[in-house]
Structure formats: C-alpha cells, structure tokens
Specification:
The chain is α/β, with parallel strands linked by helices and 318 residues long. Helices cover 51% and strands 13% of the residues. A seven-stranded mixed β-sheet has the order 2-3-4-1-5-6-7, with helices on both faces. Strand 3 and strand 4 form a beta hairpin. The structure holds guanosine-5'-diphosphate (GDP) and magnesium ion (MG). Guanosine-5'-diphosphate binds next to helix 7.
Length: 318
C-alpha cells in the first residue's frame, strides 16, 4: 500500500534540536572560525535534507491511482496536504540558501564567524518554525493514511452493496478464504472491509461496505460520499444483495430503489441483483437466488460475479 511506508515526520522543535545538537558536536571537534563554519554547514545540511526527505517520502499525488487518491481525500484534505508539502519544500530550499549565504559572510576571524553563525542559526530556526503547522499536518495525514486497507487497485474487485442485515457480511465471510485476514478500515465510524478469494488461480478482492452503500445517498455525509467515489474507481462488479423476506427490516421496494440508485452510480460496471435468504423467500425479480444459511447457490453467485468481470490476466507471451 502506497502510504504504508511513510516515515514519521519530526516536529519543528525536534528538527531544530537534531540539527543544532549535531552542529554543536561537530563544532567541538574543531577550533576558531573553522568550527563555526562546520557548525553552520552541518545545521543547514541537516535541516535542508530532513525537510526534503519529508517531501520525497510522499508519492506524487498526480500519479496516485484514482482509487487511493479519492480514499486519501476522504480521510485527509489532499489539497491542504499538498500545500503543506510545498511549504516544506520551500523551507528545505531556504535552509540550504541561508547556509550558503551566511557561509559567505564568514572570514577567518573567529569572533565574526561566531556572530554570523549565531545569526544564521536564528534564521534557520525561524524558517523551520514557519512550517511548524505544516509538519504537524503532514504527520497527522501520515498516521491517518497508514491505516488504509491493503487494496490493490489493479486486482479485479467485487463490491457488495445492499441494506443492512440482508447478509452482505455473511456472504463475504463465506466466500473469503479464512486464511486471508479481512482488512478493516474505519472511515471515522464507517468501515470498508476487504477480503480475497481465488477463482481459477486468479485472485479477486471482495469489498463489504457497511455504512456506505447500505442506504440512500442523501443520508451519506461528505466523507462517506467521498468513500463511495473511491469505490467507483475500484469496483469491477457490484453484487447488490436484497432480502425479500423482510427480515432485514427494510421494505423490498426501498431495497430496490437503492439498487437502482447504486446501478446508476456504478453505471460503468455490471450490477447484479442477488436475492439472499432464499430459504425464507424468493419473492423478487433477481439475477440470482442464494442462501448463506443453507449454502444454496452461493458458489453460483460468485461464478456469476467472476464471469461478469470477465477478467483476462496479462499472460506472459512466449
Ligand atoms: N435465514 C437466513 N438468514 C441469513 C442468511 N444470510 C444471512 N442471514 C442472517 O441475516 C442476518 C444479517 O446478516 P449480515 O451478514 O450481518 O448482514 P449485513 O448487515 O448485510 O452484513 C444475520 O443474522 C445472518 O445470520 C440466509 O441466507 N438465510
Ligand atoms: Mg455487515
């Protein structure tokens, strides 16, 4: 996952401490003006390099897969994050420039060199303090984004939708290899649960969407709406599960209205209507009828999803 390897970002205070204490150590090993020059060089390099590393540890958002971009944007404000990264980029350049500029003002005179070095340190510190909030924001974004589920945007993906209690999770648990842990991601209070299954040795992702595709769009908040946009990029097929028995607590016409809305939203991919709980009722027009309870035709539904996706792996040609 692209955000998983992001390192922690130091605070301004930590960065300044790190740079100045390293500089002091270097300075102690030398004498006179030379000590001051080395201190300045060290402090300026450490700050500039560390700030640059903050920026380069992030993927280029122009190249990030749209699924992850939207998902990231649901969790943090990507525009704000990019703004902060460019501020830090500026600070990196600036700390390097200050190092050069003040180096040029030093001479062989030890007292002058010490005075210039002190002025330079004050300016370096103020530059780093200027991006204090940006560093904090970047680190917070890193912590939030690291928790995103392991999802491969290039793997064929089945998204499971439908009102609560129709059997979505039961279905996903049933078809998901128990050895493949389900990665859960909390969207504040919501979760996307991702599991895997194999079909003819091809790996598929299956995504359960509690709190996202289980009620009308107008009841979703901004973050949820954003998460649904991310799912749009991810889905290769949607299984819309309905419960004709009414045991789920939602009238069938309401379930079918949501099905139509989801089909419209996911117009680019096949949306199959699956009547679950066929042991209780099959009184609805659907593409498939299954029962997780009895196991009836669960594999047939999975086969139908796989066929609807029609995924052809790129086989290496000989
Ligand atoms: N009778 C019957 N009950 C089912 C079937 N599938 C799921 N259930 C039950 O329906 C309830 C809701 O299932 P769940 O998977 O949590 O639904 P979700 O909210 O859509 O994820 C649970 O009590 C399940 O045991 C089925 O095929 N037949
Ligand atoms: Mg569930």
């Amino acid at each position: 996952m692209i955000f998983e390897t992001l390192p922690t970002t130091l605070t301004s205070e930590e960065l300044i401490d790190k740079a100045f204490s390293r500089a002091a150590r270097v300075g102690r090993a030398k004498k006179g003006a030379e000590a001051q020059q080395s201190m300045l060089q060290t402090a300026s390099n450490i700050l500039s390099d560390n700030l640059q590393n903050v920026v380069t540890s992030w993927p280029d958002f122009d190249e990030v897969d749209p699924f992850y971009y939207e998902l990231a944007d649901a969790v943090v404000d990507v525009d704000e994050l990019r703004q902060s990264l460019s501020e830090v980029q500026w600070a990196s350049r600036k700390t390097k420039d200050i190092g050069r500029e003040y180096q040029g003002r030093m001479s062989g005179d030890a007292d002058l060199a010490r005075k210039v070095r002190k002025q330079a340190f004050a300016r370096l510190a103020s530059i780093v303090e200027e991006v204090q909030d940006d560093l904090v924001r970047i680190n917070a974004a890193r912590n939030d984004l690291r928790g995103l589920p392991e999802i491969d945007p290039n793997e064929p993906t089945v998204v499971v939708a439908g009102y609560p209690n129709v059997g979505k999770s039961s279905f996903v648990n049933h078809v998901t290899n128990a050895s493949n842990a389900i990665a859960e991601y909390p969207f504040t209070t919501k979760q996307v649960r991702v599991g895997h299954f194999a079909h003819r040795r091809i790996r598929y992702q299956i995504v359960d969407t509690p709190g996202l595709l289980d009620r009308p769009a107008e009841e979703r908040n901004d973050i949820e709406a954003q998460a649904v946009s991310a799912l749009e990029h991810l889905a290769d097929c949607v299984l819309f599960v309905v419960d004709a028995s009414g045991y789920c607590g939602y009238p069938l016409d309401q379930q079918l209205a949501l099905r139509d809305a989801v089909a419209e939203r996911f117009a680019a991919v096949p949306v199959l209507t699956v009547c679950n709980k066929s042991d209780l009722s099959t009184d609805v027009e659907a593409d498939h009828y299954m029962s997780i309870e009895t196991g009836d035709d669960v594999d047939g539904v999975l086969d139908a999803a796989v066929e609807a996706i029609g995924y052809e792996p790129d086989l290496p040609s000989r």
